[in-house]
Amino acid sequence: MRVAIISDGVHPYVIGGMQRHTFYLCKHLSLSGVKVTLYHFNNSDLDINKLEIFSEKERENIESIVVPFPSSNKLPGHYIRDSYAYSCLIHDNIKLRINEFDFIYSKGFSAWKLIEEKSKGRINCPPIGVKFHGYEMFQKQADFKSLLQSLILKQPVKWISNNADFVFSYGAKITEIIKSLGVVNSKIIEIPAGIESDWITQQTKPINKVKKFVYLGRYERRKGIEELNAVLKELILKACDFEFHFIGPFESNQTISSSKVFYHGSITDNMKIRAILDASDCLVCPSWSEGMPNVILEAMAGACAIIASDVGAVSIEVDHNNGILIEPGNKKQLKNALLKFLTLDNHTIAKMQKASRDKIINQFEYSIIIKEVVSKIKNTIN
Predict the structure, then answer these.
(1) Whole-angstrom Cα distance, residue 136 to residue 82?
(2) CA distance 190 to 194
């Protein structure tokens, strides 16, 4: 089987959860014997032509085609305009080879022009499946600026979703959103996110005497950092005994000055990230909107309990056995969840942490996920 993956970047040439998903998808499809042609671009100082992020064995089944991402002026709507322009460049690159592929897997807006041409009968090509990950523009927004940005994105996302042959979903509330756009059930392919086995801790870790929470991600409005900071300041004033660790790029005006709060900065070394997760008791992910966050899977693999907003497909990762779900943007629920965790006995916390790790092993390890991906793609071809 030969699959074209059209992506808005791949980790680490472009940083982001969608780009990391693209990396894992290419890697494990290749290891499964699928021939992958990857259309992507570079946003780093790394040499993209070497594809050193993949092993020699993985590169045997991966062909890389670099298509630079256009950059226009920064007037409102520039991202949509640039994305459409990128999809046009992708179309021009792939159209002469279109019949080489059995399936086209598109991330975000990358196949916009291709779908447009196919819907008008101007091009014959194999099935096109699109993935918008979290459909965040259709979820609850944190502020007026985010609301305006979401309004710009909604119409093209809806059009692409309805005119593609198939739409990939993580499941749960993501599938509900896709259906609300008018996409019929038969076009929706549900596949959860996955994680590699080397993230899974191989030991039963002790519960910290002083409970350690961790946040992993950018300082971004939709990530709920402002609500989290407000709650942490309240808990510090209440003299609660805890530590909170932040992994990610934070400016000095975005931080809290306290002996209980630690900032590790941006970390790209997975070993260092795993070491912090392994030393933590609970990951906190209070986002206003999400798809199916990799950070939650990574923390679960490190045997962490989870406190997270019930958005996107988070409920597939987190339930009462391994964590606490809260409403997005609800500071009271976030505060109560942190306080509740601080009162839990070690036996209960250990059960939650074991439930996280077991769930990864049984449902989300990538060797399981990729079999489902290959099987469902083959079904669309047949």
Answers:
(1) 19
(2) 13
Cα 9 to chain centroid, rounded = 13
Query: Are 70 and 86 a contacting pair, CB within 8 Å?
Result: yes
User: pLDDT per residue over 276-300, tens digit each?
Assistant: 999 999 999 999 999 999 999 999 9
Q: What is the DSSP-derived secondary structure letter of residue 201?
A: -
Q: Identify the helix (H) or strand (E) that includes residue 335.
A: helix 331-343
Q: Using one digit for the tens of pLDDT, what is the confidence trace for 44-97? A: 888 998 898 999 999 999 999 999 999 877 777 788 999 999 999 999 999 989
Relative to beta strand 305-309, strand 282-285 is: parallel
CA 369-375-376 angle, to 5 degrees, is 90
Burial class (CB in 10 A: 0-12, 13-18, 19+), 72: exposed
Contact predicate 278/201, CB 8 Å? yes
pLDDT classification of 5: cutoffs 50, 70, 90: very high
What is the H or E stretch that residue 107 is in?
Answer: strand 103-107
CA–CA gap between residue 120 and residue 112 (Å, rounded): 13
Give 234's Cβ-side CA count (13 Å radius). Answer: 13
Q: What is the mean pLDDT of the chain?
A: 94
Let me know: does 141 contact 40? Beta carbons within 8 Å: no
Q: pLDDT tens digits, residue range 22-54?
A: 999 999 999 999 999 999 999 988 899 889 899
- Give residue for tokens 């890389």: 64
Give the C-alpha distances (Å, rounded to integers) separating 175 from 167, 182, 369: 10, 11, 18
Question: How many C-beta atoms surround the C-beta of residue 276 within 10 A?
Answer: 18
Domain architecture of the chain: domains with CATH: 2-194+365-381 (3.40.50.2000), 197-364 (3.40.50.2000)
pLDDT at 243 over 80: yes
Q: What is the pTM of this model?
A: 0.93
Closest CA to 176 of 139, 151, 150, 141: 139
**pLDDT exceeds 80 at position 382:** no
DSSP label at residue 96 = G
